[in-house]
Automatic annotation (TrEMBL):
Protein's organism: Anas platyrhynchos platyrhynchos (Northern mallard)
Single GO term (MF): olfactory receptor activity
Lineage start: Eukaryota, Metazoa, Chordata, Craniata, Vertebrata
Protein name per Swiss-Prot or TrEMBL: Olfactory receptor
Bilayer topology annotation: Multi-pass membrane protein
Record GO cellular component, one term: plasma membrane
Keyword annotations of the record: Cell membrane, G-protein coupled receptor, Membrane, Olfaction, Receptor, Sensory transduction, Transducer, Transmembrane, Transmembrane helix
Length: 313
């Protein structure tokens, strides 16, 4: 039986049996990827260039856009290349790199979303202390902690996963390398060690979820006490997008990593993984721009400036 030392490459899941359908999937992935690049790129540029957006909330949003760009760039380019060239292969090293970067970026994003919940809690519930609690140094430290925690988690999971002996071949039932799919290829019983690491990480992320829920309960109570309807609208416009992003990540991530094997199927795994790895990076810019007037104005100004520069160089 093959083991991890004899596996030099993995075979990813093919979306279709014919070249025509493969090209259709390539076009679909390309459209989603370009939309994610455009949306997150606009947020990055708008926040960097507009001095009105140099606040803690938009600093964290800039970090979120960077993580989203990295996340979708980890999975889709390889899937597009495989669809275009009608192949399924990914090298052993490439598979390990995909898992490393995907876990790093997804976990860092969730820690960052926890920090963003704290930012909204302080802004709405303790506005007089906002400047002292969320100064530039504190914001940089919290963002660095989110990135660092994600990286440490990724190194731990990747090293642990690829130290397991593989006895079930090299066919991965997913369009990118994912820890649950690699564990299916491991020898019977060997996956329990990685399962323990996954449970530990899930426990930490569950603690983040509890913190987010408590923060939003306090935020909701504070917003409902606001006498001004305009103030309530502004508070909801900055909080609801964040809550929508958190809900999407938690529901799809838990479904992907914690669902019982008895209800697992290639089609279900494919949909769930697509929802947590591809959809959030593509729709996050839309979610935040729809509810945030300041960000919409900054993006509009940026686009108008770019158009004028092309007309009048």
């Amino acid at each position: 039986m093959p083991n991890s030392s004899s596996v030099s490459e993995f075979l990813l899941l093919a979306f279709a049996d014919t070249q025509e359908l493969q090209l259709l999937h390539f076009a679909l992935f390309l459209g989603i990827y370009l939309a994610a690049l455009l949306g997150n790129g606009l947020i990055l540029t708008a926040v960097a260039c507009d001095h009105r957006l140099h606040t803690p909330m938009y600093f964290f949003l800039l970090n979120l856009a960077l993580l989203d760009l990295g996340c979708i760039s980890t999975t889709l380019p390889k899937a597009m290349a495989n669809a275009l060239w009608d192949t399924r292969a990914i090298s052993y090293e490439g598979c390990a790199a995909q898992i490393l970067f995907l876990v790093f970026l997804v976990v860092a994003e969730y820690f960052l979303l926890t920090v963003m919940a704290y930012d909204r809690y302080v802004a709405i519930c303790k506005p007089l202390h906002y400047g002292s609690l969320l100064g530039s140094r504190a914001c940089a430290q919290m963002a660095a902690a989110a990135w660092g925690s994600g990286f440490l988690n990724a190194v731990l999971h990747t090293a642990n996963t690829f130290s397991l002996p593989l006895c079930q071949g090299n066919a991965v039932d997913q369009f990118f390398c994912e820890i649950p799919q690699i564990l299916k290829l491991s020898c019977s019983g060997a996956y329990l060690r990685e399962f323990g690491v996954v449970v530990f990480s899930i426990s930490v992320l569950f603690g983040c979820s509890v913190f987010i829920v408590i923060s939003y309960i306090q935020i909701l109570r504070a917003v409902l006490r606001m006498p001004s309807e305009q103030g309530r609208h502004k508070a909801f416009s900055t909080c609801l997008p964040h809550l929508a992003v958190v809900s999407l990540m938690v529901s799809t991530g838990m479904c992907s990593y914690l669902k019982p094997p008895s209800i697992s199927s290639p089609s279900l795994d494919l949909v769930v993984s697509f929802l947590y790895s591809v959809v959030p990076p593509a729709v996050n810019p839309l979610i935040y721009s729809m509810r945030n007037q300041e960000l919409r104005d900054a993006v509009r100004t940026l686009v108008e400036y770019a158009i004028l520069r092309r007309i009048h160089p």
